[in-house]
Amino acid sequence: MNNARWEGKIMPFIDYPTEVFDQLMSINVRGVFLGLKHVLPHMIEQKSGAVVNTASGAGLLATPNMVAYGASKHAVLGMTKTAGVEVAPHGVRVNAVCPSVVNTAMMRSIESGFGQGDSAAAETARKQLEATTPDGRYAEPQEIANLMMYLVSDLSSHITGQELVIDGGAILI
Q: What is the pLDDT of residue 157?
């Protein structure tokens, strides 16, 4: 599991602080890069292994008011595809999971950011985000973990360099 993430600030692109952008990229992109760089040689040597990177539905679409987070998850998907192709001949697989909204502390932070700190506005943001999902709810962390367990199991032995979306059929992120 290669799970590096921070949502950063919720604000328009043109107002986004460069230092926050750099910090988020260091965590979300460099963190995944370093995880892959250091584990893949061992997996290549043993001629087996599977890595699951945590990306996001934000890596597949535009992310208004979350430029750094969206850009970082696009980068994670690019690294996943590249690493997956490069290490496949060695019996190693690399894939990414792209969850949409998940019932976690990170989503509380995002809701608060969209609500600009106002609890009623944050609750409105939550309801709007839930409404983008046909089943009308956030995913639970265990549902994401179940997909990750599948990807590291032999059941997914012919899957590499892919992004697997888990979003309840979300209309948009």
A: 97
